[in-house]
Structure formats: structure tokens, C-alpha cells
Input
Amino acid sequence: MGRHPVYRSATVLEAKEEGRDYLDLLLREPEISQTTRPGQFLMIRAWPGVDPMLPRPFDIMQADPREQTLRLFVKVEGRGTALLKSLKPGTEVKITGPLGRPIEDFSCPSMAFLVRGAGAAAVVHLAEEARARGIGVYTILSASAASRIVCRKYLEPVSTELLIATDDGSEGYEGLASDLLDDLLRRKTVDRVYTCGSRRFARHVQRLDREGRIKGFVFLEGLMACGMGDCHGCAVQKNGQGGYFLVCRDGPHFPIAEVVL
Amino acid sequence: MGRHPVYRSATVLEAKEEGRDYLDLLLREPEISQTTRPGQFLMIRAWPGVDPMLPRPFDIMQADPREQTLRLFVKVEGRGTALLKSLKPGTEVKITGPLGRPIEDFSCPSMAFLVRGAGAAAVVHLAEEARARGIGVYTILSASAASRIVCRKYLEPVSTELLIATDDGSEGYEGLASDLLDDLLRRKTVDRVYTCGSRRFARHVQRLDREGRIKGFVFLEGLMACGMGDCHGCAVQKNGQGGYFLVCRDGPHFPIAEVVL
Amino acid sequence: MIDTSVEIAGVTLPNPVLPASGTYEVDEVHAGFFSPSELGAVINKTIFMNPRPGNPPPRIWETPCGMLNAIGIPSEGLERFLADQLPRLRSLGPPVILSIAGNSLQEWQDLAAAVDRTGSVDMVELDLSCPNLEEGFIWAADEAALSRVVASVVKVTRLPVISKLSPNVRDISEMAVVAERAGTAAVSMVNSYQGMAIDIGTRKPILGNITGGLTGPAIRPLAIHGVFTTFKKITVPIIGMGGIATWQDAVEFLLAGATAVAVGTQNFVNPLTMKEVIEGIAGYVEEAGFSSVRDIIGLAQE
Amino acid sequence: MIDTSVEIAGVTLPNPVLPASGTYEVDEVHAGFFSPSELGAVINKTIFMNPRPGNPPPRIWETPCGMLNAIGIPSEGLERFLADQLPRLRSLGPPVILSIAGNSLQEWQDLAAAVDRTGSVDMVELDLSCPNLEEGFIWAADEAALSRVVASVVKVTRLPVISKLSPNVRDISEMAVVAERAGTAAVSMVNSYQGMAIDIGTRKPILGNITGGLTGPAIRPLAIHGVFTTFKKITVPIIGMGGIATWQDAVEFLLAGATAVAVGTQNFVNPLTMKEVIEGIAGYVEEAGFSSVRDIIGLAQE
Ligand SMILES: Cc1cc2nc3c(=O)[nH]c(=O)nc-3n(C[C@H](O)[C@H](O)[C@H](O)COP(=O)(O)OP(=O)(O)OC[C@H]3O[C@@H](n4cnc5c(N)ncnc54)[C@H](O)[C@@H]3O)c2cc1C
Ligand SMILES: Cc1cc2nc3c(=O)[nH]c(=O)nc-3n(C[C@H](O)[C@H](O)[C@H](O)COP(=O)(O)OP(=O)(O)OC[C@H]3O[C@@H](n4cnc5c(N)ncnc54)[C@H](O)[C@@H]3O)c2cc1C
Ligand SMILES: Cc1cc2nc3c(=O)[nH]c(=O)nc-3n(C[C@H](O)[C@H](O)[C@H](O)COP(=O)(O)O)c2cc1C
Ligand SMILES: Cc1cc2nc3c(=O)[nH]c(=O)nc-3n(C[C@H](O)[C@H](O)[C@H](O)COP(=O)(O)O)c2cc1C
Ligand code: FES
Ligand code: FES
Output
């Protein structure tokens, strides 16, 4: 029963700015840190008053059951994330989690991750678990410039190979990270690709999936009110069949063939 | 023209809790600290977001034009004041002031102040100015207990005589501070009495005023939206004549005969 | 201990707090928050006769102290609902309210009759007020339409009928009177207020459906006004809702004249809200020296 | 530099931003904020024929992202207003809008005619919508009453008439159509929404007048909806308001279809708001590559 989402207070242990746009947030919370699984997220609310009203969804980048900690990686976008940025250690915040479908299927020899920006946070827990199970982990990080590469320190230790592409060539490959993926697929047997943080990459992975070259998965984001299937606000169109998935309940990761990007 | 209210950022220099309910707040602001006069107040907003929406009114307890500081004394009542309590030095807040009618008439040999709780804050600037002009200052502080006496350190240096009454007798006179006033009026020539912070004392002063024994004045509080005569929200009934005063524009201090308490 | 029960149309609710339709699923996912058996009643998200996909995204948007939604009531359709969901709702313990919406008088009647036949439902709520349907029609915003639906549903079911009213009218209390005359056993109010938001970047309406319904604390003063003015005019009980975020807010509704209260949007913000509201109301009633929640209903009227 | 001017009924406003009636006095007290000559127009707090004291306190109450007010429009009466206030308003520079309210058709006409005779006014705004009058009557909530007032005022003045509409109706866009047919030269929307709050300590309504009007950011999505739906239906210009707190909010109203915008409650929160909104709109229009504020009016409609 421990897997049910719960609503809890968590304590901010660390709120470290990374560059001017990113925040590395470490929380102490004894329950969710035990039960969360790769692919899951939480909703967080960390301000007094009714404005902003709704909690904000974030992937659980890392969970340490022994230390009872959860680590989030946050891109500052608007009002809610700006308020997260001003958090001080010791502050109590409210979180609901773990939310979303856990990723349970690790029956593959290797996985690749094609992620951009804070999208990298979505795959860290998954990469850790894959590596722990002896699965090959190929990570491709994309960013506009070297200074915008994030989560590398979390992904490097668990990656069999970590590749970097920057738009301006300030680090790694100059150009599209999807080229690196294509190259990787030529070099290695990779049968699953997870992507997050770029619609362009998602379209690329969808194409590869359609061509039968890999099984592709995408982490979707979008506006959420509840995070657990109550509000039906986070709808994403089903591919082909018509109707909608709920990102929070049916995702946040989807077989990439099944959704309209 | 420097007396017109302005809307400015101010920096929190000090936010000291006094007991569990009070806050001594020192702000740096270069303009209002020059122009404010005894009897005036400001509106302050010190939180992000739209909730709480309205700024909150506080008397300007002290203004130091050289140090460019304003000192407020705040009783924690509800949400806005709770947020003030959590202010950290260095934080920017928004203030509008000086607001309300300044007290200009010091043509009297002595004044008495009958104040309770944070009501003491309303008369500090006035007492300072009176004392500086060589006017006798008789201060009567009322509180439920010794531990709830506030603003004494600001009033003591400027008081010719400072008396204390507590409900439980834990300091000074045990009983009604208004008894102390009556006694004072028998002992000294006091022709003006300012009261703040207790409706009971205000009624007492109104009675003394009606009997012609003193000229009484009262500082009124109440809900305010704008603090400067725009919203007509802070109405207080005129005595006798019918109609309303606006506390923010016509007050916040009134000849006690003119208002319905 | 005080008596927390209230009665709506002959049905006893163990306490006056229920979810607002469409805002809290009492399913497995929610089992970690509190037991649904603690609720005053359970209710489904409004069900239509036929399956519906709902509106295209974006479906929600946050606004000052509130949110807009244009969900469009996706529905699995009556048949699947009765088979898959109703037995679970029934098994939880509290009275079961079934929220339905029809696209025609006939459909309203068919739905109500089918619900009645299940024998597993205590009350039926008519969602006469959702402003998000493609048809663009709000039954509860038209006196004649409202009256006709309520009267025809009452004819085909023995279950007490709750009419969920729309605030998008000149005077919701008058609509409550219309519903009462047509035979409703209770009214619930308010549903969402028609609103919208525009993206100044794209210069287009934000919601896929263009307009949506405003809910959350922003609307509470309006909903309280609706309940307060309606209480004077009708004799059937009111289920009050609109922006309840804390037990204090719920007490405000009870004092205004609501016999029960529903929590909607706040469930998204804090999934423990309903439990906190149940406990808070009981504590308030006790502290105020009353022996029953029923003692405080409508007290602000005097 | 872009052209910030807009036109309402033949009157050119140097920019589209004005105070909402009853929320900002352009008097000496406000001289330290910004010069009233920077405004798009100036307007008084609604004036009645005879002096009125206003409602008993409490008159205001803060609510989530909004406030309730039941001021009751205290008024010095027309005569004193024209003598003491109007010359000052006239001297400031921007077009002068005079907000009036009558208690009878005759009074509406007398007021409008008297205002016209001064020769110092550019437009007259009919406050048909204040829900706080003791009489309890909202002209703009009744099609016939609205139509009659507008038609009779139009008859007695050559000044352009702005009808200030109430959102406490089924569909404000329909009321705008009624006002247009009756001859209004512009509509302004929205006035406040009927609301109330209850003190759970005393168990009584908080406001002295029991009910009040809700304003502030809470209502913005509702007001935007009103402007957006009205724009399609009328040809006269709309002055949009309701919850504008920032220039972004004001742009939302322009995109929805407002030709000008008014700032109300936010003046209490930040007395520089109108200046910030004027600058922000100009910056937005320029950045978006348009040459005139007029270019963005109603763009979200397409
Ligand atoms: C399952 C899931 C997992 C996620 N995980 C992560 C993660 O691990 N790390 C991470 O950084 N992010 C993650 N996100 C995204 C994150 O939730 C959002 O970035 C965050 O909610 C933004 O909140 P905010 O209050 O800062 O922005 P808001 O102010 O709410 O704005 C949200 C977005 O809307 C836009 N917006 C705001 N106001 C307007 C307006 N008036 N008109 C038009 N557009 C507007 C903003 O530009 C912004 O992009 C995740 C999202 C989901 C659904
Ligand atoms: C001119 C002027 C000068 C002032 N000077 C000072 C000063 O120097 N020092 C000082 O400490 N105070 C002063 N005050 C009072 C001060 O402004 C208020 O205490 C403050 O605004 C309270 O803000 P809040 O947000 O904490 O309380 P709020 O949450 O706004 O509550 C305000 C009051 O309403 C009550 N209240 C809140 N919610 C409800 C509800 N739902 N039902 C019933 N009642 C409710 C609270 O108990 C509280 O007393 C002054 C007031 C005025 C008008
Ligand atoms: C996302 C969402 C979905 C809703 N779906 C329904 C529904 O299916 N049927 C219904 O009668 N009301 C529905 N409502 C309205 C609520 O039941 C309730 O009347 C409204 O939200 C006001 O309460 P609140 O302010 O507490 O949310 C919905 C509201 C929201 C926010
Ligand atoms: C305190 C207060 C007083 C008001 N007085 C008037 C008035 O006298 N005449 C009028 O037409 N509108 C009056 N209004 C309504 C405003 O002009 C405006 O329509 C409304 O507040 C919505 O805008 P906002 O949300 O920006 O405040 C008043 C509003 C408030 C808050
Ligand atoms: S966020 Fe509410 S259903 Fe997904
Ligand atoms: S607080 Fe607005 S008029 Fe006094």
C-alpha cells in the first residue's frame, strides 16, 4: 500500500542555484523517498497564501530512501518556480507524491536518453535504476551552450556513455543532439529511447519509433492542477484512436507512438 | 510639495520580535523619513503575489531624517502582519506615505497619552516632537501584564512622567489606566489627552472631554484599502452632525468629541 | 461529542462535507490520503449517456486565487460507468449521489430512470450548469428549461433530485425557486462562472475551448452571496460550494444557509482538505457551544 | 514612437488608460505619484443629484485576490460637485468623463442636462450598475430599465453617453446590445459582482450593508469574458475593466476587444499602477511591431 500518493510536509535541505535559471532542490521527506519509482513525479507548493493557487509538478530526479531525501531539478519559468528559487534551507513545503506511473519494465539490454535542459531531470532516477540492473545507459545531453548543460553530474556516474551537443558548439558536438542519437544507434544496440525537454527531439524519436528502429518513450509536461486524475486538465491527444490520455495518470511518460506531439 | 504621499521601495534593516505578538520594524527609505510628521501613517505591502491583496496601515512610530529610517511597531493580528513578522533584513518592501493629517498644533503646555498595547506606537512621534518643543509629556501605558508593555523604551526618554498600569498588577498600578489619568489630571495641568488602542479608554477620554476637563483626541484604526481618501472604505460616523469622516484622510486622529466611538 | 450529521431530502449524511462533482475521485489512487468512508457523501464526475472525449487542451489555466477549466466533461458513458464505477462508490459507505447531465429532455429522463433502476444510488444530482458543453447551452440559466428538466426527471425517479444551479444568471436565488417549484429536493450551488483568459504572447484565447469556468477561492464571496440570498427563498436544503479552501470557509457557507458543503478546486491544492474541513466544522460547532452542526445552518441570516 | 491614442465616440484619449470611477481621486493628495495629465482620461466618483452619506461601516473587506465594498456612493450632490470639483478636473488636461447616477428617470435626465450645460465635460458615464444602493435596484440588470435610462439621457444631452454595465446578469453582452440600441456611444464594463462575507466569530455578515461588490484580480477572468463576448455583438467601443493589476492584464483587455481600460482596485495596492500600465501598453505594442495601440484592439477575436 506504500505506493499510494500521500500529501506531506517536506523540509528544504538545500536550494542551490545553478546558473541563473536553474535550481537544484533537496528535500527531506521520509515516506515518498521510500516509495517513489523511476518515472514518477510530485506536486509541490512552497508559498503562503492562495496566489499562486495550484501546486507545481516536478519529476523526482533522485530519491534516497536511507537519507530520506528527494532531489528535484527546477527550471525557473514563472511565478511558482521563482518562489521555489527563493526557498531557504529549513523551510517546510507541501508535496504530494509519488505521482504518475512508475516505469517497471527493465527487460532490455540498454536504454538511450535524449534530453534537453531541465528535461534531463526526468530520466536521472530511471538511468540510475537501469544502471543498477546492469542495463547499458547511453545519455545524450542537449543545451544551447556549455553553460546551460544541467544534471550532468547526476547522469555521468550512471551512464555507460554520455554525449553532449550544444547549439553553439561551446561543448561537445555542435549541432543537433538527435544526430548523436542516430550515430549512437548505428554504433550500439539500443532498443529503447526516452526523450524529454524538446518537442523537436520527441518528433525525431517518434520517427525512429515509427520506422521500427527503436521503441521510443516521451516524458510530457503541461499544465496540471491535481496531478492524479481528478481534474482532467492535463489531457494529451491519443494518436490515431481519438480521445485523450491524462499526462498525470497515464504518464507522464508514454510510448511515443501513442501520443500526438 | 515634499509632503505629498509617495509610493516607494524601502529596505528592511531590522525586524525584531518583541514577545510573541509584536514586531519592531526598522525600514530605510530616504523620502518619507524626511517628510512625515507626528500623527501620520503609512501603508505597507511586503509579500509577493496578489494574496493578501491590500497593503496594511501602520503608524510611523519614529522617523529619522538623518538615518533615513522609519520605525513601525506591529502587533501580529492576521495574515498580513504574520507575513511582516517573517521579514528578513535586506528585503525590499513597498510603502506609501506619509498618509493622514499631520498634527501641527503644539500650542499647549502639556499633553497626556493614554495608550494600550501597540496603540502606544501612534503617539511616539508626537511625544518626541512635543518634548522637543518643551511641552510636558505625560505617558500612561496600559497592558494586560508586565510582559505585554510595549514601546516603553521609545516613550520613556521623551516623557516628563511615565506611568504604567497592568490588569494583573504585575507592574505599576493594578487596574485601569484611566484611573491613573484621572489622578494625573488632579495633580498636573494637562490640557490635551491623546488616546489609542482601547475603546474603553477612548470612551473615558470622551467623557472627560465632554465635561470640559481636557481636550481629547483619539487615534482610530479600522479596515483600509487605499489610505488616502480614494475608496471611502474607512468611514467613521460623525458625532451629532450625521455623515462620516474618513479615518485615512480626516484622521487618523480626531478631536474625540467629533466621532462616534 | 457533537452530532455532525445533516439531512438532505430524507437522506442522512454522517457529516456535511462532500467532494464537488468532477474534482475528487474516490479511487485507489486516493487511498493514501484519507478513507472515503469518512466523507459525508460521495459523488461521481458528471456522467452523460454516451461516451464523450472532452475538450481539446489546454483545458485549465490558473488565475488570481482561482482557475479556469474547460474540461468539457469527458465521459465513459452511462453503461460503463454503472458497470465499472458505481459498485465501488456504493461499497464505500457514505450515501451515493450520482451526477448526471443530459443533452435533451429525453436523455435526462433516460439517465435518471437508469440510475434509479440500479438501486445503488441515494440521490441524483442534475448538472444543469456546466458552461463548457459544445452545445453552449446552460439549462439552469433559462427558467423554462430548468423547470422542464427538473419536472421531467422528478417524474421518472423516486430518488431525491438535487439541482445543481449555475451562477451565470441575474439572480441564482430566483432559479432556486424555479427548481423548487419544479420538484427538486435540494439545490447545489454554485457551479463555475463563465470566464476566459488571453495569452498576450500568442494574442489568442488560452483555453482550447476559448471560454471556461472560474472556480476556487476567487469566487467564494459570490457563492456565499448566492447561498445567503437563496436560503430566504426556498425551503429545500442547499449544498453550498465555491472556493472552500479551509474549514473556516465551510463554516461561512453553513452560517449563510447551506446544509452541506462541497469542496472542489481546493482538492487539487491539498488532497486532505475534506478531512480537515470535516474536523474543523465539528471543532467549531463544539467550541461555539452547539450540540449539532444543524444548529449553525443559516445563523447569519438573523 | 507608437501612437498611443484611442478614440471613444469622437473624443480622442491620448492613451487608453483611465481610473475606474470611485477608485482614484486626481486631487492634491495624489500629486506625488504622477501627473494626472498623463492619464488617458479623468473621471469622478459617481455623483448623485442630492448629497448622500453612504453606507454604515464596515464598508470594505478583503477576499482572496479581491475585495468586497459596500461604500454606497457617498456624494456631495451635483451642485457642490460642479462648483468645487469639476473646474479642477477640467484643468488637468485629459478628456473629462463625468460619472452620474440617478434614482429616477427624471433625475437621470436632470443630471445629464446639468452636466451638459457646464460645457466642461467631454463624456458622461451612467453608473447603471452599482449594486450597493439602498434602493437595491440595478438599472443595468433589467433590459427595459437600462434601455429607458439610456434613451432618455441621450435625448437631453449632446455629450457622448457611456453606459457602465453590471455583470450581475445572465449575459452582459446582451445588455450591451440593449444599451447600444438605446443610443449609448460606448459601454464600460464591468462594475462589481454581488458578493458577501460572513464573520464566523460573530456569525453575522461582515459588511454594514450585508452585501457588497467584488472587485480586483479575482474577477479578471470574468471581466475578460464579458469584453470578449460583447465585442462581437456591438459596434460602439468598450472601456474594459475588472481586476487590472499590471500592464499585461490591460493588454489582455485590449486584445479581448476593449478600446480603453480602467484601473480600479489596484490603485489602492499601488498608486503608480496607471502610469505603469500606460508605459507597459506602449512598450508591448512597440515590441510586437505595431504602430498604434489601436492595432491590437480585439486581436484575440480572430
Ligand atoms: C509531470 C511533470 C514533470 C515536470 N518536471 C519538471 C522538472 O523536473 N523540472 C522542471 O524544471 N520542470 C518540470 N516540469 C515543468 C514545471 O512544472 C513548470 O515549469 C512549472 O510548473 C512552471 O511553474 P511557474 O509557476 O514557474 O510558471 P507559471 O507562471 O505557472 O507559467 C507556466 C508556463 O506558462 C507560461 N505562462 C505563464 N503565464 C502566462 C500567460 N499569461 N500567458 C501565456 N503563458 C503564460 C510561462 O511562460 C510558463 O512556461 C514538469 C511538468 C510536469 C507536468
Ligand atoms: C491608521 C492606522 C494605523 C495603524 N497603526 C498600527 C500600528 O502602528 N501598529 C499596529 O500593530 N497596528 C496598527 N494598525 C492596525 C493594523 O493595520 C492591523 O492590525 C493590520 O492591518 C492587520 O492586518 P493583518 O493582515 O495581520 O490582519 P487581517 O488578517 O487583515 O485581519 C484584520 C483584522 O480582522 C480580523 N479578521 C480577519 N479575518 C477575519 C474574518 N474572517 N472574520 C472576522 N474577522 C477577521 C482579524 O482578527 C484582525 O483583527 C493601524 C491601523 C490603522 C487604520
Ligand atoms: C476541473 C473541474 C471539473 C469540474 N467538473 C464538474 C462536473 O463534471 N460536474 C459538475 O457538476 N461540476 C463540475 N465542476 C464544478 C465543481 O463541482 C464546483 O461546482 C465548482 O468547482 C465550484 O467549487 P470550487 O470553487 O470549490 O471548485 C468542476 C470543477 C472543476 C474545477
Ligand atoms: C471602493 C470602490 C468604489 C467604487 N465606486 C464606484 C463608483 O462610485 N461608481 C462606479 O461606476 N463604479 C465604482 N466602483 C467600481 C469600479 O469603477 C470598477 O468598475 C470595479 O472596481 C472593477 O474594476 P477593478 O477590479 O479594477 O476594481 C467602485 C469600486 C470600488 C472598489
Ligand atoms: S493534472 Fe489533474 S487530471 Fe492530470
Ligand atoms: S482607506 Fe480608502 S478612503 Fe480611507
